[in-house]
Amino acid sequence: MRFPTLSKSKSPLFKSPLSYFKSFSSSIPKSPLPFSSPSFRYLSSVPSTSTEKMSKDKSFDRSAMESILTKRFFYVPSFSIYGGVAGLYDYGPIGSALQQNLINIWRQHFVIEEDMLEIDGAIITPAEVLKTSGHVDKFTDLMSKDTVTLEVFRADHLVEAVLEARLESDLAARTAEAQISKDSANALSQKKQKGSKPPVKLSDDIVNEYNEILAKIDNYNKIELSEIITKHDIRNPATNNTLTPPVEFNLMFESFIGPTGTHKGYLRPETAQAQFVNFSRLLEFNNQKMPFASAMVGKSFRNEISPRSGLLRVREFNMAEVEHFVDPENKAHKKFSEVANIKVRLLAAKTQEKGSTELTEMTIGDAVAQKIIDNQTLGYFIGRIYLYLIKIGIDPEKLRFRQHMSNEMAHYACDCWDAEIKSSYGWIECVGCADRSAFDLTVHSKKTKEKLVVRENLETPLIYDAFVCNINKKVFGPTFKQNAKPIQDHLESLSQSELESLKQQLDSQNSVTIQLKDNSSYEITSNMMTIDKQTFKESVREYTPNVIEPSFGIGRILYSLLEHSFCVRPDAELRAVFKFNPVVAPFKVLVLPLSGHDSFQPFLLSVARSLRSKGVPARVDDAASASIGRRYARNDELGIPFAITVDFQTVSENTITLRERDSTSQVRGPIEDILNTCVELVNGVSTWSSISQKFQSVSPSTEE
Amino acid sequence: MRFPTLSKSKSPLFKSPLSYFKSFSSSIPKSPLPFSSPSFRYLSSVPSTSTEKMSKDKSFDRSAMESILTKRFFYVPSFSIYGGVAGLYDYGPIGSALQQNLINIWRQHFVIEEDMLEIDGAIITPAEVLKTSGHVDKFTDLMSKDTVTLEVFRADHLVEAVLEARLESDLAARTAEAQISKDSANALSQKKQKGSKPPVKLSDDIVNEYNEILAKIDNYNKIELSEIITKHDIRNPATNNTLTPPVEFNLMFESFIGPTGTHKGYLRPETAQAQFVNFSRLLEFNNQKMPFASAMVGKSFRNEISPRSGLLRVREFNMAEVEHFVDPENKAHKKFSEVANIKVRLLAAKTQEKGSTELTEMTIGDAVAQKIIDNQTLGYFIGRIYLYLIKIGIDPEKLRFRQHMSNEMAHYACDCWDAEIKSSYGWIECVGCADRSAFDLTVHSKKTKEKLVVRENLETPLIYDAFVCNINKKVFGPTFKQNAKPIQDHLESLSQSELESLKQQLDSQNSVTIQLKDNSSYEITSNMMTIDKQTFKESVREYTPNVIEPSFGIGRILYSLLEHSFCVRPDAELRAVFKFNPVVAPFKVLVLPLSGHDSFQPFLLSVARSLRSKGVPARVDDAASASIGRRYARNDELGIPFAITVDFQTVSENTITLRERDSTSQVRGPIEDILNTCVELVNGVSTWSSISQKFQSVSPSTEE
């Protein structure tokens, strides 16, 4: 994962390296800081995509979901008995299994099916490597401090929060004004009773200026942001103290390797570098064949200034990254036809440049044919990313591919698309897919002097003529002595046209005078050297591959999936359910007895054991104190897709019931048959509709 | 994983916390430092287990294996194009897949089959947590520096290497002496010609002293080690400079969380702490039922002073740890009968204390019955560890369980067994299995004031009588005013017998005088207070669970498995093969064409695709330039268990051949049948001997 940015400054001057080192987070919505209530943003006079990204899903009750996530230990702040640490989370049994399943499906979908070379590189990375890649100098965010309390803020976030709060207050004032003029002062006094600060109306000019700043908030450099803070008197809202001018803060965690305290290292901010530095070994492993892809799954680290938005902006996170190495002169993909007919929702750069966020639904084949997507390989990965996200349960209606605009794209990229998933936080970048050219291989190669190139035998050798100097060493050496080497170096540095003119001179005058860089001159005669035209034949082509990099933020995908899976049963108690599909569900089968009767126990154990031995995670809930209805409900909260109940008929007839979570419909059948069916359902070999005809349907337990 | 140690000092005085914070490494053999050639050690006059652990497998050619590991990119030093970093390794496609398979099988064997609660906690850990657990103060090794070059050494390793080199030199001198007296000076002069330093003979007393030091090398504290360095004039062998006295070096990587530079954190040295601090949530998730186990797989970090021995002592490594929480008063295990008949090789503490290293083969049932293994739960996990290691392919002849001796066991442990695997480095601790009592839960609870306990409803409530003070607040309060609270606190702190005697006094004299800690005295009269005997009923028992902790070093297991799987075909070319079983093998099936004929390509692609879609990693080797024999050979080096060949019969008859790696025998059958058979073989549903009868046997390709 590189550092995709949103709406970078439109000035080409700002395409400095800074722009491609913004953190993998800029498309995170501007979620409320503690002192700013959720708000919508005025439409700026210049419509911007970030406005669109802010639109929240109002129908979704995030706090209801979050209370279940915490109560059922999906994930919690790390070390919470010690007060917790911002931006660090511990995944409990459900979160951990969900994460593992997302990774396993990813491995099957990418590594195995695409025959990628997965590696597992070190987390601790020497400073030198990250200096070369640019991270040491450029992987920074801007930070301001409260001048009195010294509390630290990410400067752009603070400006944003303050301006949003002011705009919100202005909106309230305008609404109240309208109300007053319409139907007395009633509304205003009601508003005031809520205990919020009295709304402050702004001038129209200021509203426009604030909106313009918000639309460009990701783009400002240190000086610009400092000017905005001064001009608009941005302060710490909690203390009303002024702020220090923003300074760069490097987002990498620093440490020292070994006992001497001199060998500096960092925790990797991405998994990509380990793949680049191993390029030659990977190519060798692939029997020198191109194109090929490496892959890596693992933790990366970013020391965020002020982490927020739950799993969306954290200090430690799992990524899965692919580096697909490809011939820069041929980015066709041999399996492209397999994704060409997939329809995806695209938000192309051109559309955004027109100020629109309208999605275009089209096939990947058409998008590549029309050059909306730059090349087949990029298109192929967009298709595979789409298939992966749909497979795990992302709602296709809430998935779009947004192309980077030219002003937000890193200088090395010729095209970049983000898979953005919509949640209550807005459209979140969850997968980046960039064509990164040869940037990293080139810089590492330059730094280490190791060739990171492909050598390709040419089917038709390249044949060409060229002028060369043929030196008669017996005369040349003794004539020029210690100057022979510099003179020879100079001759070798000459271009073909310079050699040609030298040859004409030498041929006509039998002598030439050359001048070195230090202004010394030497006369070379034709008995010392001739310049001749020779024919050359090259049968090997050497090139630095380009890299196409699909990069997945597992935590962000996981969080989006939680929102897309969360729903409420439309019954009296509004019970919460996570509708995980069987492939991603942490536990696949719930096993429970109808009651606490002793005769059920051996069946529970043997059923659970049989499922587990077949690799099916099963949860037993035999708490005699809870009704079967309550036990169904509390396990619905864990998203368990199937439930097996052991009852008196099990004891007398050796049959069990199987319940499907979403429909709550149930069938009954012999134990062995039901268990085998479970394995099929869980592995996606069968579906509920296909199997429910095979068994006797039963009415749900009266207790449910 | 805790920090199991070997042969700690025999003095009970040394059972300070230091002893349980030795790094997870002490049973690593004393492998040669660059300046010390491989050596065997004299048998000490007091036989010691560490002597036995040193015995190397002389028949195994480690360098032959290592050259293949590097050439085929199993794993390599990280960032090697930048010169590499000691103790950091990148796993290539084979090493990475092998590691992933070991972890997947572990998850199936432990987490799913045993219904453990797997979590995924943060790597970055606040200093406060590791201060409580003892790591900040005690997780250290002793370090000495060359007084001139300032080169850094792990002090115990350096002493060991120097003494071993001196003993080796002594042995050479004694051998030479014996030779001279036997058959002229020939042998000695030959020895000298090898360019090694002239051997130096030591006195018998010195030899004995050195051997005694070596036997106890893991036990010395800072002062003792310093004395040894001085007394025996230990120097840096490379420079002959003296050394600084040893000082403690903390093995944790340090960093700062957030931008302020004040919130210190460390990279976790083990995964255990995240499980302990989440104990209450885990218990809640398990519906308050005991016993239960949590589990975690992930990277841990130890900033070793001088990493060595390849994957065996590294700075960053994957662990898999189980924390099984159990009632301290009942360590029976309900599934114990399932492992009771497993025979394991035990090296009990008693045997070692007699100076023997003889293994006892016995069933786990007998070992628990005879109290050799302390309890059923510990025995159950030893059985499960055994089954896991055998399942992945560890040679049972090279696996033993060694019990910690009382002098090497941490103070909280009542029993501890290491699964040790024999390789060319000697017996290596690969899994620790300790009964850790309530140590961690107690210290975290004390520090955070969070109760980390189990509350258990008692079936039979506990009924008992006790004396209590009943205070008449209306009189007591006004009488003592601001002193009422301290007096009441004092009364509440009294024991039952003190209360009883107070009651007698009060009943007989209608008044008592009590004295507080500050020596102030107060008279209490019977109108202010009565002391009465009351009956109490407790229906809840509260206790801190004990923890049984099986802890797996994945890298060490992986390395041991490589050695146990490495062999050489007894043919002319001595081709190397890794005999991975199908479950752990990185690639399961090799797909190759008989030759470069065009008609084979579509079959290759469809066979590979079909296997991959079924989750079977397949490698295609269609390099037309290499003979099929050469291609078999180079893929044997990757340990691929099965190979499918596409040949002219495939094109004409739709059949393919399937070759089994170890026997090199081959069968032929219709494509679909062979592919389905492959899936069965890979998943362990079928074996080669069972399937080879189903198909037509074919003679191996003449090219092989």
From TrEMBL, chains A, B:
Chief place where the protein resides: cytoplasm
Cellular component GO terms, alphabetical: mitochondrion
GO terms of biological process kind: mitochondrial glycyl-tRNA aminoacylation
SUPFAM superfamilies for this protein: Class II aaRS ABD-related, Class II aaRS and biotin synthetases
PROSITE patterns (alphabetical): AA_TRNA_LIGASE_II
Reactions catalysed, as given in the entry: 2 ATP + H(+) = P(1),P(4)-bis(5'-adenosyl) tetraphosphate + diphosphate
Any Pfam family the entry gives: tRNA-synt_2b
Sample GO molecular function, one term: transferase activity
InterPro entries reported for this sequence: aa-tRNA-synt_IIb, aa-tRNA-synth_II, aa-tRNA-synth_II/BPL/LPL, Anticodon-bd, Anticodon-bd_dom_sf, Gly-tRNA_synthase/POLG2, GlyRS-like_core, tRNA-synt_gly
Annotated localization: Cytoplasm
Keywords: Aminoacyl-tRNA synthetase, ATP-binding, Cytoplasm, Ligase, Nucleotide-binding, Protein biosynthesis, Transferase
EC number: 6.1.1.14
Residues in Aminoacyl-transfer RNA synthetases class-II family profile domain copies: 266-570
Nucleotide-binding found in the keyword field: yes
Quaternary structure note: Homodimer.
Annotated NCBIfam families: glyS_dimeric (TIGR00389), PRK04173.1 (NF003211)
Family label: Belongs to the class-II aminoacyl-tRNA synthetase family.
UniProt-recorded name of the protein: glycine--tRNA ligase
